[in-house]
Amino acid sequence: MFRSALTWLRYIKSCHLEPVTASPARTISTATQALRTPSPSSPTRINVFNLSKVPRYDFSKPSGVMKSYTLNFPSSSPLVSLSFDGDSRIFVLTMLGKETPDNRLTHTFIAQGLLPALKHVEQQWNNMLSSGESDQGAALISTGGTDASAKIFSNGLDFEKAVADPRFFDTHLNALYEKLLTFPIPTIAAVNGHAFAAGFGLACTHDYRIMNAKRGYMCMNEIDFGAPLPHGLQQALASKISDQKTMRKIVLEGHRFSAKEALDAGFVDGLSESPQDTLDKAIDLAQKLKAKAKMNAWGCNKEVIYAQAIKITRTKHDDATNALYAPRAKM
């Protein structure tokens, strides 16, 4: 694969690999349990439009202990809550259902909630790398909530708002998908309930999915209301679903996959018994995976295996909105 040592060194440089400083073995404290029951309150808040104000911790201390915190995005009228446990190095992003109760992927939700939260996590990971504190790795979990009433992970787009903006897919939805497809640490979707259409795509842009077996379906229902599938959304699915019979069942038949069916089809990695259990199992998986990111090759390798999907999400599709809206306009 590499014809010379120089080629190999250039590859390493392109991946931004950082030397890892040895540090004393650490045990995971009970603070991790706080992630399993996220609090709606936010003790620490920042202005998400000025990420320079994000606290950068002094990772050079011998103890290597990081402070746990919770942030809201945006800081006023929050759409997303982000919790970080300093002992386990696990981030939990909770979609709060404030703008829409079913976490629809609107302009505002993406631009002021999801993307700023993801950029914050990415910045903190870069801080760990530059400070030689990446030895434990890190991971990100996304959830639609842990309350028993949390029935929906994400119900897709707000259709009318999406088609009103001819650049929505390029500037918002595809940007969100690309960010997750290239994210430098393991990502797990804790699918607590229904994941429909673009919400299904959101789950698929995570590296792994744990799904509540007691409530919820995964479905691409555009076919049922006459909407062509946007390029970026199709690639979000294709990044995790290679079997063409399964893709046909999803896209052309609009089949509603139960958690068990999704597991059997291979695009869900584990089942759970409740929204809380979904997060618990996602945390367990994150604990197993997070150290794989410590040398900072996780994101580089994702850019290889998801190359086609990333290429499409980075390509401008000026016709995407018109194509999506056209069938309805003729009705």
TrEMBL record:
The keyword Lipid metabolism applies. GO terms for molecular function: delta(3)-delta(2)-enoyl-CoA isomerase activity. GO terms for biological process: fatty acid beta-oxidation. It catalyses: a (3E)-enoyl-CoA = a 4-saturated (2E)-enoyl-CoA; a (3Z)-enoyl-CoA = a 4-saturated (2E)-enoyl-CoA. InterPro entries: ClpP/crotonase-like_dom_sf (IPR029045), Enoyl-CoA_hydra/iso (IPR001753). It comes from the Eukaryota. GO terms for cellular component: peroxisome. The keyword Lipid metabolism applies. Keywords: Lipid metabolism. PANTHER family: ENOYL-COA HYDRATASE-RELATED (PTHR11941), ENOYL-COA HYDRATASE_ISOMERASE FAMILY PROTEIN (PTHR11941:SF75). This is Enoyl-hydratase.
